[in-house]
Amino acid sequence: MKRELVIQLKTINFFLNKRIEELHKSFDGNLSPISGLILKFIFQNSDKVIFQKDIEEEFSMKKSRLSKILSSMEKEGYVKRVSVKEDARLKQIILGEKAKELNENILKSKEEIEKIIFKNIDEKNLDIFFEVLQEMVSNLKKDME
Description:
two-stranded antiparallel sheet, mainly alpha, globular, about 70% helix
């Protein structure tokens, strides 16, 4: 088998995005895949104060792109941006009511997709895969610094 990592990753990304879009449309057609991932991140970090910068770093996104995504999410009622007392320029990102209603569906979608992806792959191989994947992510982050 020829090792063409970039092509394989693009192929996985294509199929993942298609599958995620199908699942998300079933419970809310307006929610983009990246918006779902952002909501998941905010939910998983609900014990912390989340700012746009935190999301930028988590998803390696440019400020302008994320700002557009958050504006759209705010307009749809998924998130709210709230000024903080210490610095009015900083906006805390909190979940809107619509996001709270969708949380359970997003988690179910993730589990369903992972079940499909990991089908017939034993735990040992998955452990190795995730170790290698983490190293690749680390290498790319170091290279971008």
